[in-house]
């Protein structure tokens, strides 16, 4: 259990804390932050901060593992699992809160499961499906879109720009395309798995 794996486990442990902040109503939460007609419940702000911290640890654990030659099989399993758990948990929470259409969550989560399945086939074949540039872009845009939804489109709400909706649509489109890209570039794995 090296440092990168501990960071990954910490990311997983932050997920239920984030969901509690989003979905459980506590009387001790401070009043919502108000700025004119803009309102942001304190629990959403807290959940957004937890999400940002959790998402940022993804790059940190990978960097440390590569820099200090601490890449382990456990890390290879936990890191993508932690990422998918984090995104899936917050998307489902946003659907529950009425801030996200369920079909968007289904599309994004389905793509994540499909690419995970492809990676499992690759492992059985003795190869690795590396993260593509489209996959990395997908992750960044998903994080930006989720944060925008969590903070009620601040500060774009004051400019009349529906940035949160634009970002989540962009995330859905790039998520679909990046999944397609993975399967096209690794179709040989699907052919070999039939044998």
UniProtKB/TrEMBL annotation:
Xref: Pfam families: CDP-OH_P_transf
**Catalytic activity, EC:** 2.7.8.5
Q: Which InterPro entries match?
A: CDP-alcohol_PTase-I (IPR050324), CDP-OH_P_trans (IPR000462), CDP-OH_PTrfase_TM_dom (IPR043130), CDP_ALCOHOL_P_TRANSF_CS (IPR048254), Phosphatidylglycerol_P_synth (IPR004570)
Location in the cell reads: Membrane
Q: Which UniProt keywords apply?
A: Lipid biosynthesis, Lipid metabolism, Membrane, Phospholipid biosynthesis, Phospholipid metabolism, Transferase, Transmembrane, Transmembrane helix
Enzyme category, top tier: transferase
Q: Which PANTHER family does the protein's record reference?
A: CDP-DIACYLGLYCEROL--GLYCEROL-3-PHOSPHATE 3-PHOSPHATIDYLTRANSFERASE 1, CHLOROPLASTIC, CDP-DIACYLGLYCEROL--GLYCEROL-3-PHOSPHATE 3-PHOSPHATIDYLTRANSFERASE-RELATED
Q: What is this protein called?
A: CDP-diacylglycerol--glycerol-3-phosphate 3-phosphatidyltransferase
Question: Source species, please?
Answer: Paenibacillus enshidis
Q: Give the source lineage, highest ranks first.
A: Bacteria, Bacillati, Bacillota, Bacilli, Bacillales
């Amino acid at each position: 259990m090296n440092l990168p794996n501990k960071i990954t486990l910490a990311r997983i442990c932050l997920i239920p804390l984030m969901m509690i902040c989003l979905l459980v109503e506590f009387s001790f939460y401070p009043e919502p932050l108000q700025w004119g007609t803009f309102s942001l419940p304190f629990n959403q702000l807290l959940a957004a901060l937890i999400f940002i911290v959790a998402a940022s640890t993804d790059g940190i654990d990978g960097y440390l593992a590569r820099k200090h030659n601490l890449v382990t099989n456990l890390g290879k399993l936990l890191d993508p699992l932690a990422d998918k758990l984090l995104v899936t948990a917050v998307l489902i929470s946003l659907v529950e809160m009425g801030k996200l259409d369920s079909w968007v969550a289904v599309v994004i989560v389905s793509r994540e499961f499909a690419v995970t399945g492809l990676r499992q086939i690759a492992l059985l074949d003795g190869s690795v499906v590396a993260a593509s540039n489209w996959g990395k872009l997908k992750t960044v845009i998903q994080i930006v879109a989720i944060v925008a939804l969590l903070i009620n489109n601040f500060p774009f709400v004051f400019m009349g720009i529906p940035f949160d909706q634009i970002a989540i649509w962009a995330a859905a489109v790039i998520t679909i395309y990046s999944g397609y890209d993975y399967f096209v570039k690794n179709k040989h794995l699907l052919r070999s798995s039939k044998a």
